[in-house]
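Course assignment 3, question 2. Fill in each field.
Student: A.L.
Task: Predict the tertiary structure for the chain below.
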Amino acid sequence: MRKDIEIVGGGITGLTAGLYCKKRGIEYKIIEKEEENGGILRDWKVNGDWYYRNCQYLSAREEWFKLWPGEEFDIFTVKYGSYTDIWDIASISIEFAGPVYPNRIKKKKITNNEQESLAQRLDIYPEEISEGLTKWVNKLGFDTHEIHSSNSISLQISRILPTKDIDYIKELKKRERLADTIYGLSRKELGIGPDIGALPKNGYNQLFKKIGKELNIKNSTNYRNYANCQKESETKTDIIWTGNPTPLINNISDSRMNSPATKAKNVLIKIDKSIILEPFYIQVYAKNTNITRIFCYLNKITIEAINEMEDKNRIAWEARNILEKFSINIGKSIEVYEKREIRHFIISRMDYKVIKKFLIESENTALIPAAWHEYSRDSKINGIIKMVKSRHCV
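Answer field:
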């Protein structure tokens, strides 16, 4: 039976699903509860200008990206680096966007232990590495025993680079499947070419407004009752739920999500227009700052910090010092702003179980869920498109 599709959520995933349906001639409707579309990708608007919210470029090589109008984007070679001092020695890399371990590894047998909690995953490493990562995660306010092991990806610590044992790591990754998931190498060492990114030329807000009109999005908080979408597989409408799953799961499941929230801050810097920065981001793993990432673009910088209470000028000063280590001199800051936000990017062990259980229960129903337990945007979008293809034979 040919069905139409109702898409809940007007963020990048929902809009991409809408573009796919439109291209394939599938009847669709998009509902977004906020007055404006875009979700977590919406730009900050400050003093008549816009700033990217966190480091949010799109993967231009992904098949789903081709659904978007290419002329609206600047395409670039993704460049990145990392600053690490959680093992007491400051390490700077322009080839690896993860923690860099500066000492030789104390060899430890890698055992495929249970990895339910992040603490269990970090225990796979030798003690010194595990201890440094654990202290850093705890400093950000997270309990490694309570959050799921998959948070290694959302916290950008899924792989570390031991710079003094490159040859050993190469051999180890060939021999041990588990080692390949916890140790990293640069793309150059792996023989992989650079990634290609895309950013909207005039910010996400303008792009989402344009696409929203093309897709005829309905902005409304009056969602209909979705309680039956998990039960009725023979309805005329499939439901793609791209947003926060908490209200859906709590409403129609016998399980409950606690959906832990993180209080975060973006510090936004505008510098002199004579200094134009190519897109470049730095992952930060430091003892004495709550900065987790710095994103440079145009004549602007967006700094991500977990502690919302830290002074914006101190954060800007700390970021400047880190940037100088990468030979990036931004001159005098013309304007410095701050924006606070509540982020839901950490999954507790209990929530992970609830989501997995719900996804199993939702198989062969009218619901097409996003992979809410996964951090990767590409995985979520590709998973939804795959399910739509399967159900609608397109």
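Instructor remarks: Residues 12 and 45 are 19 Å apart (CA to CA). Residues 262-343 form one domain.
Grade: pending
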